[in-house]
Amino acid sequence: QVQFVESGGGLVQPGGSLRLSCAASGFAFRWLSWFRQAPGKGLEWVSQIDGKGITNYADSVKGRFTISRDNAGNTLYLQMNNLKPEDTGIYSCGSSGANRGQGTQVTVSS
Fold this sequence. Notes:
Elements: E1 3-7, E2 10-12, E3 18-25, E4 32-37, E5 43-49, E6 55-57, E7 65-69, E8 75-80, E9 89-96, E10 99-100, E11 104-108
Parallel strand pairs: 2-11
Antiparallel strand pairs: 1-3, 3-8, 4-5, 4-9, 5-6, 7-8, 9-10, 9-11
């Protein structure tokens, strides 16, 4: 059974940093992604990484967020720096928007 479990969210002040983790099990996916959903808004794709380390980012996070995965490919990370209030939302990981975990809450506020 495919499963994604996110952790590492929390409350942080603007300009702060957080590191999210995602434990993936049940299948080996070439591409894994992070998504987020702000209150009252639709799902937004944030970043993706493949098994060889090729990465892509949404323009809104480029230069501030870094995606990575461990060598076994089972754990996904998202290092988020210089956080802004508009980064607030529920962050989830998965192979697609329809196949992802429950998510972890990130709140950026002073």
